[in-house]
Amino acid sequence: MQPVILFDGVCNFCDASVQFILDRDEKELFRFASLQSDAGQELLKEYNVPDDVDSMILIEDGKVYYKSSAALRISRHLRGAWKLLYVFMIVPPPIRNVVYDLIAKNRIKWFGQKDSCMLPPPNVRKRFL
Questions:
Q1: Helix residue ranges per DSSP H, the chain
Q2: How many domains does the chain have?
Q3: Which InterPro entries does the UniProt record give (predicted)?
Q4: Average pLDDT, the chain
Q5: Does the residue 127 lie in any domain?
Q6: Which residue from 35, 82, 94, 129 has the fewest beta carbons nearer than 10 Å?
Q7: What residues make up the domain containing 108?
Q8: Which pLDDT band holds residue 125 (cuts at 50, 70, 90)?
């Protein structure tokens, strides 16, 4: 199974993050599912993701990654200098996640939200579960 990124489909920041990844994922490695979708809910159950996880989630090679670990693992597959961010994996997660948690906690307040999940454009729709 190709890596899957689960994201909050009504969060503007999360939507922008997905667009950012789509624009830089030249090999079309990643698949996407909103947390609100049936596919997203099935994956959450299948991988026993706790209900209180407030994070973008990466499912890769049968493992689940959260917060900065997910973001950094995603970055290593992106075009350009974004791959270099993966070096921050050497920083212990509690330290890396301080900034991640700050953004996650305030993302709706700072960036707003939509009434419903986005409908991907036809050229990338096949990458959404």
A1: 12-24, 38-46, 67-75, 93-111
A2: 1
A3: DCC1-like (IPR007263), DCC_oxidoreductase (IPR052927)
A4: 88
A5: no
A6: 94
A7: 4-118
A8: confident
Residue 118 scores a pLDDT above 70: no
Count the Cβ atoms, other than its own, within 10 Å of residue 48: 7
Query: Is residue 114 scored above 80 in pLDDT?
Result: no
Query: Tokens for 91?
Result: 């920083």
The whole model's pTM is what?
0.85
Residue 29 covered by a domain: yes
Mean pLDDT within 9-32: 89
The encoded tokens of residue 13 equal 């920041």
Question: Which structure tokens are listed for 20?
Answer: 């950012």
Assess if residue 123 is contained within a domain.
no
Q: Could you give the CA distance from residue 112 to residue 129 in angstroms, rounded to a whole number? A: 24
- State the Cα–Cα distance between residues 45 and 77, nearest whole angstrom: 26
User: Does residue 95 lie in a domain region?
Assistant: yes
Name residues whose C-beta falls within 8 Å of residue 72's C-beta, 6 or more positions apart in sequence: 85, 86, 88, 89, 96
In the block, residue with structure tokens 């996407």: 32
- Classified as helix, coil or strand, 25 is coil
